[in-house]
Structure formats: structure tokens, C-alpha cells
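Continuing from the previous page of notes. For each protein in this section, the sequence appears first, followed by its C-alpha cells. Read the first protein now.
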Amino acid sequence: MTKEVRYNLIEITDGMANRNTPREQKMEILGECINLDRWSFLGFDNNGATVRLKPKFHNKRDRKGRFTAIRSR
């Protein structure tokens, strides 16, 4: 079961979009910045300042979407 990941809009778009940018332009910029084949877009939070994404993979990941090691006992 994968969890959603939240990113700051300014950081993920390298400053090309902020919370006041119209939604259509935000979506175009996000399409250029992230691979939508690997991420499902869930929406915006905090008045459009946070992007909610869900990874489309079945590997073990941490809360930021990075690979994690599965430790054996």
C-alpha cells in the first residue's frame, strides 16, 4: 500500500509556479517537471501551495518517495 507524497509547489517546479498561478498553468508546469507516468496527481492543498502525488510503483518507499532498504531480521 503506497502513501501519498506532498511537495511544496515552488520547490518541485523550481520557482516557475506559485500558489497564485492559475490551475491550468500549474498543471502544464507540473507535467514538464514530473513524470506523470510514474506519479498520480491527487490535487493541491494549502490554497494551492502543496502538490499531492501518489507514486505508481510497488517498491518499498519512504514518505518522500525514495527507495528504502528492507531490513531482514
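Done with the first. The second protein uses the same format. Note its length before scrolling.
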Amino acid sequence: MTWDAGVLIVGLATILAFVGAFHVSGLVARAKAVVTLTSQTMAVISDTTLDDEEKERMVQGAALRLFGQFILITLTAIVVLTMPGVVMAVGDLIGLASFAAVSEFLLSWEVIIGATLLILGGAWLVRRH
């Protein structure tokens, strides 16, 4: 498969926009907070030293916090997933590469495998240091 320079530039910028938006989004931290809150709530439910009214109050509070996290995670994910589309639309608007051509480029097996390996390698390097 052959791609022109415009498609390559917009495609790589799109990948960088997604990775950058995901990195700064805090989605991983929010997901970890949800797991922690869920574990704490399960501990409250199984705590035999608390009476049912205390458990109910604590579990209801946790449920409200979980719902808030759900909303934040959903809105943040929408923003993260919108960023690559914005880059592709701008590339199309300025005539660098059409949205369809960049989509085809990004959905090619070469790019999917290559980007996956690069992102995993980058994550591994960051965690090592």
C-alpha cells in the first residue's frame, strides 16, 4: 500500500493527538480510583462491625461517587476520542489529506501493528525509568 506525504503527516499527527490526549486525560487514574472505591465499598458491605443503617449510608455515598466517576470518565473519553477526529478534519480542511484517505491509512494493518508496538514500547520505556 502506498501513501502520500500528506496522508502520512496527518495520520501520524492523529496518532500523536490520541496518545497525547489519553496521556493527559487522567482516565487511568480515574479507573484506578473506581477500582479502589469499589473495593472499599465491598469491604463496607462485608464488615460485620457496622450495622445495616451505617452500611446503607456508606454504600449510597459510594454509589453517588461511582456515578460521578462514570460521568467524568464518559465525558473525558468523548474528548479523548474526539481529538483524533479534529486533527483529521483540520488536515482535510487545509487540503493536506482527505479524511477518507487518513482513515484508510490508520485502519491499515501495517499502521495498526506499528502504532501498537510503538505505543507499547514507549509505555515500557517510560515505566522503566
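What the second structure shows: The helical segments are 5-25, 27-46, 52-93, 99-106, 109-128. The chain has a mean pLDDT of 93. We return to this in next week's lecture.
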